[in-house]
Design a protein that fits this description.
13 helices, 252 residues
């Protein structure tokens, strides 16, 4: 095991390589080593590497952590990741969130067992003042939601959606992409009808800036789930004198 750990430390240097193929092979190797000697030592080395300054090194490290989680089951990695989030350092916290994002992207439906344990962490990140925290947390919510539709986790995603939603007025393109992606993910997880109820509140707002954002979300919703929205549109009673019952109401 000590020899494997020595190899791990050598591999960290390989993450600085210019060739993408070398970096990709390196992060996969961390997964194989973790499978051979257990994830705890490898994970400790990788989490320590999140404190470095170079961005490329940190991003490769987060991918390696996600691969370790995939190859050794997520429950071996999530507690250490959540513990590392306590470190009051921007790079480390962003690294943890990025690892979570990649991890949920890799493990997809396995993520349903871990949703309720990571909700408090994502909750904290989505309320952070730092823009990058919110962006990365939104990406994590998106991957998490797309992995577990129809698995009975709607309550958690509704809660996360309430925290993602206030960010729709952000101006940074990266943040907007992440937030829109999270909303799309929540549409899959909780259903388009719920998102429609959120959107209807702002479609006819007096301020143009608000209307633009809400119509953008509505258009995406309409493109993705047009037929599913029919049952959720609000009723418009044009004739006040006569009471009418629509065919769709009779079916429902």
């Amino acid at each position: 095991a000590r020899e494997w750990m020595r190899i791990c430390f050598e591999l960290l240097e390989m993450l600085k390589a210019n060739k993408k193929a070398i970096r990709r092979a390196t992060v996969s190797t961390f997964g194989y080593i973790a499978k051979a000697i257990g994830p705890s030592d490898v994970l400790a080395t990788l989490l320590n590497n999140l404190k470095v300054q170079e961005r490329q090194n940190r991003v490769c490290t987060t991918v390696a952590i996600a691969i370790v989680a995939e190859s050794c089951a997520p429950f071996t990695v999530i507690p250490a990741l959540m513990n590392e989030y306590k470190v009051p350092e921007l790079n480390v916290q962003n690294g943890v969130l990025k690892s979570m994002s990649f991890m949920f992207e890799y493990i997809s439906e396995m993520g349903k067992d871990y949703i309720y344990s990571v909700v408090p962490l994502l909750e904290d990140a989505l309320m952070d003042r730092d823009l990058v925290h919110r962006q990365t947390a939104a990406t994590a919510v998106s991957h998490l939601a797309l992995g577990v539709p129809g698995m009975g986790c709607e309550d958690a995603f509704l809660h996360l959606l309430n925290l993602v939603w206030p960010n729709i007025f952000e101006t940074s393109p990266h943040v907007i992409n992440a937030v829109m992606s999270a909303i799309e993910g929540c549409r899959v997880a909780v259903g388009p009808g719920v998102i429609l109820q959120y959107v209807l509140q702002g479609l006819f707002h007096p301020a143009k800036r608000v209307r633009q954002v809400y119509w953008k979300i509505y258009n995406n919703l309409y493109i993705a789930s047009q037929e599913a929205l029919v049952a959720y549109y609000p009723k418009v009673h044009l004739d006040k004198q006569r009471s009418t019952l629509h065919e769709l109401d009779m079916m429902i």
